[in-house]
Amino acid sequence: MNKPGLLLVGAGGHALSCIDVIELENRFRIVGLLGLQSEKGSQRLGYPVIGTDEDLPELASTYGHAVVTMGQIKTPALRIAMFQRLLELGFVLPTIVAPTAQVSLHATVGDGTIVMHGAIINAGASIGDNCIINCRALVEHGARMGSHCHLATGAIVNGDASVGEGSFIGSGTVVREGIRIGKHCLVGMGQMVRTDCADGGRLPAGKGIK
Question: Is the model's pLDDT at 119 over the cut of 80?
Fold first, then answer.
């Protein structure tokens, strides 16, 4: 079977994890990565960095599929801007799900989202576009995550909780059932989130919401 070519936009550390998931899912053929000018001509796990984002208009006429493989911790701004640019250029942004992940048939996962190794998305959960659901993260029944979020390794969003667009939930953090986390919040690693967090809230590791 001739698999569709897939362009990876971002050539840093997160891209390595994405490559591994894409290879194992085996739906697409990775044609190369886009990175910084200084990264052009190098390789990532055997795949070439073929250009920068300046080459996107030309590449759009050759490759129909792309996915954002930039990481997201402090801000989602770069991922959001690149996702929107890819859509404007006519790329299809597929949902990528690791074979080791479990996604309920009764859950929804948006375009351009990648679900990494061992993650679980349970029945009735909803994940927006361009999200990272990282390794061993759990999104429980009825929970909702807006677009452009990153749920880091081992984080748990319990039943009927919600996470607003552009928010980051750190590794090992547990969000209590029914809690509302607003848009563009940053919750550090290892937190126990028991109260709602307003838009733009910050909960660094070991500190309270500011």
Answer: yes
CATH class of 95-204: mainly beta
| Structure tokens, 158 | 């319990």
Of 170, 164, 204, the closest CA to residue 184 belongs to 164
Task: pLDDT band for 100, please (50, 70, 90 cuts).
Answer: very high
- Cα–Cα distance measured from residue 177 to residue 122, given in angstroms and rounded to the nearest whole number: 14
Count CB-CB contacts under 10 A for residue 95: 17
Can you tell me which residue has the tokens 């990775």? 30
The CATH architecture assigned to 5-88 reads 3-Layer(aba) Sandwich (3.40)
pTM exceeds 0.90 for this model = yes
- Bridge partners of 150? 132, 168
Alpha carbons 47 and 20: distance in angstroms, whole number? 12
Dihedral, 195, 198, 202, 204 alpha carbons, nearest 10 = 10
Q: Where are the domains of the chain?
A: 5-88, 95-204
pLDDT at site 8: 98
Instruction: Yes or no: say if 170 and 152 are a contact pair by the CB < 8 Å rule.
Output: yes
Q: What would the pLDDT profile of 127-177 be if each residue is shown by its tens digit?
A: 999 999 999 999 999 999 999 999 999 999 999 999 999 999 999 999 999
